[in-house]
Amino acid sequence: MKKFLCVLFSLSVFACTLIGFTGCKEKNEKIQIELGMWPEANLTQDIAMYKYWESQFEEAYPQYDIIAAPYTYNLQAFVSDAASGVLPTVFQTWMTEPPSLIENGYIRDITDQLEQLGWLDKLDEGLAANLTVNNRVYGVPRDGYAMGLMINKKIFEEIGIFYDSDGDGVTDIVDEEGNPLYPTTFQEIYEVSQIVCEYTEAKGIAILSSNQNGGWQFSNIAWNFGAVLQEKNANGKWVSHLNSQACIDALEWIQMMKNEDLIAPGVTLPYSDWYKLIGTRAVAMCFAGSDAISMPVTNYNFNKDDLVLVPMPGDGVHQAYSLSGGTPFVFSKDATDEQVLGALRFLEYMGRSPVVSDVARAAIERGHQTAQSKGMPIVPTIKPWKSHDYLAMIEEIEPQYINVNMEYYQEFFDTIDQMRRVEEPNYCQKMYEELDRAIQAVLENPATANPTALLNTANNNFTNKYLNELNK
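^ thats the sequence. predicted structure below, dont judge the formating
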């Protein structure tokens, strides 16, 4: 019997040697952290920056081993990735996704680790809202964005909308009395688009319509026509109003623009189309997030000095809002406590944590320097952390690197705190899908499409498939 047990023990040791860390982890083995936000292979400057951060971090924390594991979140592939256990320790997603990921058990609670590091009370409440369930936190925001109206300044100059109003030799976007020359209402976008199409080869504006991006933009347009898209009724049940008169007005505005051939051609326009269309002078305007202004520059060599970002327009009657969200870092359900702690600590070395230190300062500056070397426009950011010391550090560093004429962005950033509105609380991406279909139908057959009927269908589908399940 003893001989048999010895043989078993020997075989076990041999097996451990073969399977290594997967089955019999040595106590002195380093804690591996797979970084899903690691840049893709073609982003050589970004990779060099991450490798520098990696070396600095591993020198300070020799117990960790950073593993490059670039991961792009994709709705179609994510479930199988999660089931197969191939998710990296930490990865990025969209701010609408965490509630679903939490409900399905795909990402883990990191509240205790945030508390251990002293970060829990430093989170921006608005950006952390979709990461929090029952007072437990499931990720941290990387950064924030808010939607605005992006304008090709050159086209507006050509048609005389923008001009040098104060005689200083620089094109202005306000008149001599400080009144906006840019569109502030949807009616004004319509009128400016008519001028654009009459005197240039460009269209007035791009309207996205696929991959949930159409519904994402449309929700902001609808809010600014006065829509309430989701709310709880008197019985505490969630109801949607995708077919309200305000939503119908918003879709009819798109229909009018399409009927008069004032918007970019195509029925299914994905996210990448907005910066292609702006970057190639195919449109004069689009709706875009403040975190993405570099896209026409880096992808189409667009002159950063010819971009303008102004507040979202309204209907002239209702409060105008700016849809606000961000990109969060979330953690695989399989990540250990030590892996989570290591990944969070690494954020300091990226300049993405609330920590105020020489390391954090250097990382933030290196990030700006890398952006500068790539010719990217650098503007103020929407901050993911709220601690006084952190905000003071950012406010000290950012102005040194801003490389655009802030006159073309100032009104956006001056008003954003009053205009920010977070995305709807339930099944956002599914709601956007239903709205995509309605927008596509209008773009395909603008002369005959019935916005009321299309939105009735969208509302019924969203209610029956999703909200009714939520209300059970």
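The mean pLDDT is 93.
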